[in-house]
C-alpha cells in the first residue's frame, strides 16, 4: 500500500524479548492472577533491563494499562522470528542504537544490521538524547542530514 523511501529502527530484534520462562508462566495462570503477579514481575524485569528515561516510562504505562486477556490471545506473536523478513527489506534502513542500552542488545542489533542489505547504524549517546533537550535538537539535525544524504 505504501512505498517508503527509507525507515528508522530503534534497537531492533529478530524475536520478542520477553524471557521464555516468563511467557510460559504467563500463559499458565489465569488473567486475574497475571493482572497482579504478572505486572509485578514485568515491572521488576523493566527496572533491571531497561535504561532510565522516556522509553522506560512508556513501558511502565503499557504495563499499567494492558488488558492481560487480550494479550494472552496473541500467543503466536511470542514465537515470531523476523530473520527472513529483515533480509527482504530493499529500502535504506537506519538503525539507532546506544551502547548503554540494557534492553536492546548490541549483538542482536548488529545481527539485524547484517541481515538488512541497505542498512546503516546511527549511534547515539543515550535514548533520552533523542527525546529531551538539548540532545533532541542535535538528534533531529542528524536525522535530517541522514535523510538528505541517503534518500
Descriptive tags:
single chain; 151 residues; mainly alpha; 2 domains; 3-stranded parallel beta sheet; 8 helices; 54% helix; 9% strand
List the helices and strands and how they pair.
Blueprint: E1 7-10, H1 20-28, H2 31-49, H3 54-65, H4 68-72, H5 83-87, E2 93-97, H6 106-115, E3 119-123, H7 127-131, H8 135-150
Parallel strand pairs: 1-2, 2-3
Describe the 3D structure.
The protein has 151 residues and is mainly α. The protein has two domains: 7-15 and 81-150, no CATH class; 20-77. Helix content is 54%, strand content 9%. The protein has eight helices and three strands, in the order E-H-H-H-H-H-E-H-E-H-H. The chain has helices spanning 20-28, 31-49, 54-65, 68-72, 83-87, 106-115, 127-131, 135-150, and strands at residues 7-10, 93-97, 119-123. The chain has a three-stranded parallel sheet, with helices on one face. Helix 6 (106-115) links the parallel strand 2 (93-97) and strand 3. Helix 2 packs antiparallel against helix 3. The radius of gyration is 17 Å and the shape is globular. 15% of the residues are buried. The mean pLDDT is 82.
Amino acid at each position: 500500500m505504501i512505498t517508503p523511501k527509507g525507515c528508522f529502527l530503534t534497537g531492533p530484534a529478530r524475536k520478542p524479548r520477553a524471557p521464555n520462562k516468563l511467557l510460559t508462566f504467563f500463559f499458565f495462570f489465569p488473567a486475574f492472577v497475571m493482572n497482579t503477579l504478572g505486572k509485578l514481575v514485568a515491572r521488576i524485569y523493566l527496572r533491571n533491563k531497561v535504561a532510565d528515561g522516556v522509553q522506560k516510562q512508556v513501558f511502565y504505562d503499557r504495563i499499567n494499562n494492558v488488558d492481560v486477556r487480550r494479550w494472552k490471545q496473541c500467543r503466536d506473536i511470542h514465537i515470531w522470528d523476523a530473520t527472513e523478513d529483515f533480509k527482504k527489506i530493499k529500502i535504506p534502513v537506519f538503525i539507532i542504537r546506544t551502547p548503554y542500552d540494557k534492553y536492546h542488545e548490541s549483538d542482536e542489533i548488529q545481527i539485524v544490521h547484517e541481515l538488512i542489505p541497505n542498512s546503516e547504524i546511527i549511534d547515539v549517546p543515550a535514548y533520552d538524547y533523542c527525546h529531551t533537550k538539548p540532545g533532541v535538537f542535535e538528534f533531529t539535525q542528524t536525522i535530517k542530514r541522514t535523510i538528505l544524504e541517503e534518500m
